[in-house]
Amino acid sequence: MGMDGKIVRVATDVGGTFTDLVYFETDTATGQQHIRTAKVDTTAPNFAEGVLNVIQKADIALEKVDFLAHGTTVVINALTERRGVKTALITTSGFRDILEIARANRPDYFNLKWVKPAPFVPRYLRLEVNGRLHTDGREREPLDLSTLPELLNTLRCEGVEAVAICLLHAYANPVHEQALLAEVRRLWPDVSVVASHQITREWREYERSSTTVLSAYVQPIAARYLDELQAGLRNAGYQAPLYIMQSNCGVDSLAHARQTPITMVESGPASGFWAAAELGRLIDEPNLLGLDIGGTTAKCALIQNGQVSIKTDYWIERDSTHAGYPIMVPVVDLVEIGNGGGSIAWVDDFDKLHVGPQSAGALPGPAAYGNGGEHITTTDANLALGRINPDYFCGGELTADQGAVARGLDLLSERLQLPPIEIARGIVRLANDNMVNALKLVSLSRGHDPRELTLMAFGGGGALHAVALAQELGVKKVIVPRSAAVFSAWGMTLSDLRRDLFINRFVDTTQPAALADTQCALETLMHAAREQFVAENMAPAQVQLQVFAKLRYQNQEHSVEVALNSHEAIAEHWPAIEQRFHALYEQHYTYRLQAPVEIVGFHLIAVAEIGKLIPQALPVTGRTLQAASKGQRNVDFALQGVHQAALYDYALLEPNMTFCGPAIVEDSGTTVVIHPGNHVRVDHLGNLHITLDGNGA
């Protein structure tokens, strides 16, 4: 807290197109909050420069900031663009080909020309050491490190910069990996090295090997980025701890994130969905469909009972025709598609119109940016339909190049032999269809009826499409958060310090004393989880633990996570836990079995509160709705035709104001499209609650 009794928190989020900032200043005496937001172009590949640019744009005195959290796409970008370092893998004798063997399931089953994805480490850089453990962690064959100096010399000569270590059954006992890791560091202190037990303690050799390799591949890149960011912030006057957003909806210390940067793989999207869950709890909307539409992608996730689902079954570059690569780290359970404001509209060889996944990015950006972009994007189509104000484009910072938009639409019009306005409508409808399918994957496909959920839309493009998507899904209500354009950054100010620990432990629950032994082991794990934070100067009272048991029917492959209540012990409350498993299993898979249930492991969530922000109600000045009016304009609502819509300035809307569509609400970072028949209410925090009429019109 500053000398003036004010607490200042800042969060920055680097996206594929824009770098966002949220600034919160809280007066501890009055509780009054002052909020500022800013947005600049992302400066790839020097992402740290964009962060410093947005701080400068927001005119922030860093020496007065008490808390700074940062989310970044640097890890996922390094992976997808193949900008990592030359990496080697050291594994157990006989297992060097595990990255190529992978999983046998072909995603495109009838494609006889399908080729497995090339591993990130070529075969000549995958080396073996002798030594073996049993599945329960007992030593079967001692570790032999006599050949290691020769192996490392080979890697040195090949110009390797990072080494991944993944030994068989290290999840059960890391002793061999620890010995090998120490020896590599002793013999080759300059190389970046990571072992699988530092990242995950779950079984499945291929997934664990892939995760370790990908972590090693990006580690030097991420370390340099975090070091540059920290140095830049320190030079600019920042003195407080720097926190990094993780994929598990929590922040972590920079030192810990630097060790295993793969945990940042989806840090930006995670914070947005965490913000949605936190906001949902504040406004009594615990069951949500979260939708984040940025410049490059659209992401969606399900929020149940105020909780975001965290899983380790995460793959990059996986789709209907590509197997992709698994990453076994805690990641928010989301679906991501290449559809955002910058998604390019294009025509295939059969004269069929498509939208995405290619993006115009920030440079040259959509045609309307006037930076030489010739391709029509979703943003351009929304502009042509009157949904976006050309005189308030990008918050008035840019003049929309309507000539470039018209020329781009004319080219598509000529190709498809359709009027330009129909092309624009088609682009928006196609983008909506793509997003609806993604929303169905996180709701209907998982046994949840979207009609019983509320859609919360954020990101720069979320509010443009939300109502149309809700109509398609049968959702009755849409919420657009205040500061929706920078919502992911806002989420970081609401986050706790968090670590997710996944531990495999196979338990046959039918055996005598098995449950009692398991309870003892679980208590040991819980103590170890607490000690991680205590070792980093956190008071034990600050640390909260939540435990999930991973259960399955005997002899099955995959498990279901069942939450344990704080008072529950495995041995004493097993029948109740087992009943919850049956119910959850049936919800996921539509049936239950009369079969023994076994434990395959535990998921522990350790959370330490670090003084996160609590949003305060907005003041009510008595301003009228008319004072927020910006006039009217014709807006094309695609399926619902052209209507004259009322225009409102979001910054001038106050709690308890109400109005009906057709309407457009303009904010500096986003535009809210309110369709005819919709009813809008502003809540005490400034969020828009849009209720759809009964017939979905």
How many β-strands, per DSSP? 34
What sort of overall outline do the alpha carbons produce when their principal axes are compared?
Answer: globular
Helix content: 25-40%
SSE class: alpha+beta
Overall pLDDT score? 89
Largest sheet features: 9 strands, mixed
Number of H/I helices: 15
Rg, nearest Å = 26 Å
Strand content: 25-35%
Query: Whole-Å distance between the termini?
Result: 50 Å
**Poorly predicted segments:** none
Give the arrangement of secondary structure elements.
Layout: E1 6-14, E2 18-27, E3 33-41, H1 47-57, E4 67-71, H2 74-80, E5 87-92, H3 98-101, E6 126-133, E7 139-144, H4 148-157, E8 162-166, H5 175-187, E9 192-195, H6 205-235, E10 242-245, E11 251-253, H7 254-259, H8 267-282, E12 288-293, E13 298-304, E14 307-308, E15 310-311, E16 314-316, E17 325-327, E18 331-332, E19 334-337, E20 343-347, E21 353-359, H9 378-384, H10 402-416, H11 420-442, E22 454-458, H12 462-473, E23 477-480, H13 487-492, E24 497-507, H14 514-534, E25 543-553, E26 560-564, H15 570-589, E27 597-608, E28 629-636, E29 642-649, E30 658-660, E31 663-666, E32 671-674, E33 679-682, E34 688-691
